[in-house]
Amino acid sequence: MDFSTNPVLNREFYLQDTVVVAKEIIGQILLHETADGIIAGRIVESEAYINGDPANHAARGMTMRNRVMFGPPGHAYVYMIHTHWCLNAVTQPDGVAEAVLIRAVEPLEGIHLMIQSRRTDVFRNLCSGPGKLTKAFRIDRKHNGSDLVTGHLRIVEGQRIRNLVQTTRIGISQGVELPLRFYSAEHLKWVSKR
DNA sequence: CTCTGGATTGAC
DNA sequence: TCAATCCAGAGG
Which domains, and CATH codes, for chain A? Predict the structure, then answer.
């Protein structure tokens, strides 16, 4: 398995409606070329954060933290929650602050590196949550603003998912009723638990 | 269920 | 300066 030669998802992909991006990103491959080797996995769970959405970090305007959300599409917005980093893909044109949170990944390549980073060898716990997958993939604040189209951390073409489930989002206190979370029913084993 | 514990934000 | 808040995770 070597996903580093798969075609990368281009800039236009991230210019689509954010809910469409959140759906279509399921099944694609998150890939990180590190000095120690390639780490890759299939995205199986996502959430959309959109305009007019109270749970969007950018809902109350631009701050130092959320400024990359206002930048061009196809870049990584990485922020810390509690003690964990979370990875988002910025969508929409420059000036519009929307993003897709990547919540879970099925481990595919570089699993020994994931085990090393996560300090667990329980496969289904390696990447089944937003904080777990960033640790497994060695993603942190230095990736904030990095380009997911041209960089070492990128998203490449995977497979199309037929059995997509749409539900409400996890862990938020506002906008709880909005059905903006998506996961692949075929990959339930790798999806985070509520 | 509880405990852990980093960083941002906006109030004072 | 400071405390509330935040898109968790681990362990029991």
Answer: 3-187 (3.10.300.10)
